[in-house]
Write a structure and sequence with these properties.
With 150 residues, the protein is mostly beta strands. Helix content is 5%, strand content 33%. Strands 2-11-6-8 form a four-stranded antiparallel β-sheet, with no helix packed on it. It has a three-stranded antiparallel β-sheet with strand order 4-9-7. Strands 1-5 form a two-stranded antiparallel sheet.
Length: 150
């Protein structure tokens, strides 16, 4: 288990916690109420700041229930919290529901935080990349939805 130092910036809210054994993401809570109209986005504080060990990053992911039930997700999913960042973790939410606004209240679970080990890369410039089976095709070049029959 990796130790993450945490500073509570809002003493009335609990620190992130895992809802169930085996969960990958710890719940992040809203520090304030926010109402999002259809298509509207807003930045919400979580009331926490963390310090990660070098070689780790935290990733802010959407909550599947908010997405499925209300069309609320994250603008920059997943949001990246680098090891050197010490400010408040904030969540940029967006309401993708075409007709309904949503109000989220202080203390609501708005996102989840996943802590992972990350590798540093050394970028080596070459004149030409080695070949591969895939080649340079992208954005759907390997096929669409074929193979699924009902």
């Amino acid at each position: 288990m990796t130790e993450v130092l945490i500073q509570r910036l809002d003493e009335d809210l609990p620190v992130p916690a895992y809802a169930h054994p085996g969960d990958a993401g710890a719940d992040l809570l809203a520090t304030s109420d926010i109402t999002l109209k259809p298509g509207e986005r807003g930045l919400v504080g979580t009331g926490i700041a963390i310090a990660l060990q070098d070689g780790y990053a935290a990733f802010v992911h959407p909550r599947s229930g908010l997405a499925a039930k209300h069309g609320v997700t994250l603008v920059n999913a997943p949001g990246t919290v680098d090891a050197g960042y010490r400010g408040e973790i904030k969540v940029c939410l967006i309401n993708l529901d075409p007709t309904e606004e949503i109000t989220l209240r202080r203390g609501d679970r708005i996102a989840q935080l996943i802590v992972q080990r990350v590798e540093k890369a050394r970028f080596v410039e070459v004149a030409k990349l080695p070949g591969s089976d895939r080649g340079t095709g992208g954005h759907g070049s390997t096929g669409g939805f074929g193979g699924v029959t009902r």
